[in-house]
Design brief:
mainly alpha; 4 helices; 0% strand
Length: 83
């Protein structure tokens, strides 16, 4: 297993990049980078699958127009106006 040098902020930047790749549908780029570490690759695949299930759930809730989902959607839009 490869050894990593971890300095302050590296983990936060890495996690941000991972989540950004999922949001922007650029999973293949991250998978190429982490393919040499099987455990990290598996964890990322699980995260990717969970993000897809979350997106499917949100799409389902949006189609049903549930009041709880509308509140969540409004909160997200107010917190992250560019999304």
């Amino acid at each position: 297993m490869p050894r990593y040098i971890i300095s302050e902020g590296v983990i936060q930047r890495f996690l941000s990049a991972v989540f950004d790749s999922i949001i922007n549908h650029k999973q293949q780029q991250i998978k190429k980078v982490i393919q040499k570490d099987p455990q990290l690759h598996e964890l990322y695949s699980n995260l990717d699958a969970a993000a897809q299930r979350l997106q499917d759930y949100f799409n389902d809730q949006a189609s049903q127009e549930s009041p709880e989902f509308n509140k969540l959607r409004d909160y997200i839009k107010s917190t992250y106006p560019n999304s």
